[in-house]
Amino acid sequence: MCSALARINLLALNADEVKGFLTRFGEPAFRANQLLDWIWRKNAATFAEMSNLPLALRRQLAEVAVIGTMKLLRAQESKDGTIKLLFALQDGHTVETVILPYEIGDSVCLSTQVGCKMGCAFCASGMPGFIRNLAQEEIMEQVLAARRIEQARGRRLKNMVLMGSGEPLDNWDEVLAFLEAVNDSQRLGMSLRHVTLSTAGLVPKILELAQKKLPLNLAISLHAADNDLRSRLLPVNKKYPLKELVAACDQYTALTGRRVTYEYILLDRINDRPEDARRLAELLRGKLCHVNLIPLNPVAELPYRPSPPERVKTFAAFLGEAGLNVTVRRRLGSDIAAACGQLRNLFCGDPNEG
Ligand code: SAH
Fold first, then answer.
1. 295 CA distance to ligand 1 centroid (A)?
2. pTM beyond 0.85
3. Which is the closest atom of ligand 1 to the Cα of 165?
4. Which is the most buried residue in 77, 80, 133, 233, by most CB within 10 A?
5. Which CATH architecture has domain 71-336?
6. Atom 19 (ligand 1): residue with closest C-alpha?
């Protein structure tokens, strides 16, 4: 019997590759479609349950192939219905995924890297530094696992957000391969309209993404409308300052026709003053965009505090009056440290856990 490491992960293959792989078993061609159907439509986690495949084939497959390589170590459910999943990867690293319940349809928040290089001042995910990129099949496995859990609790995944740990545009090849698998009718078969990619602002990659003209939602972690403050909060701003970032987003809108979302975490007395709102309104005036205000999810070791609700209201009202489209993000899962910026892949001893 092959070791788990030597087995082929079918989640890494497209339909043609699965067909090619099956030829070695001397099975008729339709078997590949049955196998694909089990993996991608019926959400099978094992070969044993693939009841319309001959038993001998199921056994052979189990010896040489796997459907995913990750192990679910823990699933925690918050009072508000948010579920945080902790997975062990094959090399022993861990990664987190969050299922977020919304009335308009549930979302899954996916990690794209173990750790992160961005070093944003308010975020827990980058605290351990960068460890490695996730492969496209590891990003996909998070979706399939979430879909299974949703099915079991009578809910359905509608949207995906690349907002877990990691910077998706810093893992370009794998994230693009993942998006292709999402959109592929023989694999996940989901429109990219249901996917939001959030970036700290890697300008050259935003421009490259724009050229691809995908119907994907782009979100920018803006968090400040002046360069000094933004560079302190998001070091990536030193390399790609605001003017270039906003110009790249304009280009994205021009090429794709899609509205860009600007995310803005409100930090108590750091970026929530009237002059901050004024600067933000000036920066984004007249653009096809949406501002998503995010109450900070505090991270124990970090000095930042969320803006008080009154200030959030005032800030949002100012932007609204200035003609911007603005919403305040609902905070979900903070009781299980599953909220934005709180993911840090700790198996135990998370200081945010109650
Ligand atoms: N690297 C990508 C995606 C991961 S962060 C990015 O920077 O966009 C996903 C979202 O969570 C971003 O908007 C990020 O700014 C936000 N976030 C990070 N830390 C947070 C915190 N402590 N509280 C609230 N939101 C946070």
1. 11
2. yes
3. 4
4. 233
5. Alpha-Beta Barrel (3.20)
6. 341
